[in-house]
Specification:
Layout (H helix, E strand, L loop, with lengths): L1 H13 L1 H4 L1 E8 L21 E8 L5 E9 L15 E8 L11 E6 L12 E4 L5 E9 L8 H9 L3 E7 L7 E4 L1 E2 L2 H27 L5
Helix pairs in contact: 1-4
């Protein structure tokens, strides 16, 4: 078991880590331009919203997949009674002049309008079973884009000139935003090696359990 798990993850380290591109984003209210402070429709403070997102560009740079999880934004319109936190749209924004503090146009929408995950539609929205928020996933294919294409935006994405943005009823320009940045190769290897250590530990525990003498 340990040998199989080790071989599998080492093959990933040797091949996939250098072939695909991993990116990440941390979303919060302060990253919006200008920063926002969420309140209820009645003007009372509401919990700060936030989230995380991860992206993978395939080795041939033909598509980009993503997963994002957000908190304290109502993704169904019925998770809270308030309307200010209702999600209205979610996009990736990019452009040659985009920085973490500079706004850019929508290049690919995956919730609300514009909606560009449609050739084919790979989008999945999974609201939390309890609590406020949910998880989103999708795939930006070459044929998709908001008056642009993935190929045209890859230079911006890889250079850190893009961000993911979730818009609400209260903040039509965006309530939480996160700059999309490539994960350094050293950190990618560290993550994979961490996974290898976890699998190895599980395998060792199972091996000990199999060798343990019977109590009967």
């Amino acid at each position: 078991m340990l040998k199989i798990a080790s071989a599998l993850l080492l093959s990933v380290l040797a091949g996939n880590a250098g072939a695909v591109t991993f990116l990440t984003a941390s979303l919060n209210n302060a990253s919006e331009n200008p920063p926002v402070v969420p309140t209820t429709a009645g003007g009372q403070p509401r919990a700060a919203s936030f989230g995380t997102a991860s992206f993978v560009i395939d080795d041939a740079m033909m598509f980009m997949t993503f997963t994002a999880t957000i908190f304290n934004i109502d993704v169904t319109g019925s998770q809270t009674a308030d309307i200010n936190d209702n999600l209205t749209a979610a996009h990736i924004h990019a452009g040659p002049a985009v920085t973490p503090t500079t706004n850019g146009g929508v290049v690919w929408g995956f919730f609300g309008a514009p909606f560009n995950d449609n050739n084919p539609n790979d989008g999945v929205v999974t609201p939390f079973g309890s609590g406020i928020g949910g998880t989103f996933s999708g795939k930006w294919d070459l044929a998709e884009g908001n008056n642009t294409t993935l190929a045209a935006q890859l230079p911006n994405i890889l250079a850190g000139r893009s961000y993911i943005n979730f818009h609400t009823t209260q903040f039509g320009g965006g309530e939480i935003r996160g700059n999309i940045a490539a994960i350094p190769e050293s950190e990618t290897y560290a993550l994979l090696l961490g996974g290898l250590a976890v699998v190895a530990g599980v395998a060792r525990r199972r091996a000990r359990g199999a060798r343990a003498p019977s109590s009967t």
